[in-house]
Amino acid sequence: MKVREIFSKTILGKTAIPGFDYCINPYVGCGHGCRYCYASFMKRFTGHLEPWGEFVDVKVNAPRLLEKELKRLKTHGTVSMSTVTDPYQPLERTYRLTRGCLELLLNEQFPVNLLTRSPLCLRDIDLLKQFRKIEAGLSITTHDESVRRIFEPHSPSIQSRIETLKAIHKEKIGTYAFIGPMLPLDPKRLVRMLEGCVDEVLIDRMNYTNRVKAVYRRAHLEEYLEEDYFRIAGMELKESFQKKGIPVTIIFQEEVS
User: Nearest-5° angle of CA 55, CA 25, CA 20?
Assistant: First the structure.
């Protein structure tokens, strides 16, 4: 892993993602290196020759920048952490940039939406509990550890993510599971795993590149690229969660109901 410390010119960006006004990405790149990561397009802006997942640029001045930028804002808005990186990837344990940014957002009581794959977010639960409006989400893309190891080889186990959601939910903090992208999964088993630890579920797929399709082929999982899989599994997930009183949004296919 190549780690480069950089000084960014800005840290609080505007975003067009529905429901959010701003985004903070304390890192460029991600140590989790998920095979399907849509954010890999960022590589061409970095000058890195290393494959996606094998480099991270650390915006070491992120908290100082954020402090200045927050003072210039005229209106509050919901902040997403993060949109093209994992705010709690392994390097956050050392650099603590996400925590530093959260402390500043807490001072101003900005609404925050967190999304991560890492139990490291529990380190900051003391801060999360103090926000008046916050949601914490974990990416849960499958129920199956063998599938996780194929597509997310450097990310925390699925069970550790479930336990993280349980711990956050126990603190009365709003939690959600982001089932995106839908990797090969058993809807019924995944619903059972998530019951009682999430307030909401978001489901998504993505347009898979030839590179990602090749990963499916090597693992003999091509059937999980078929449109019928996404349609049927998405519907089954939605119906099963809703029966348990958990609201669901299917992002990729509004007609699934």
Answer: 145
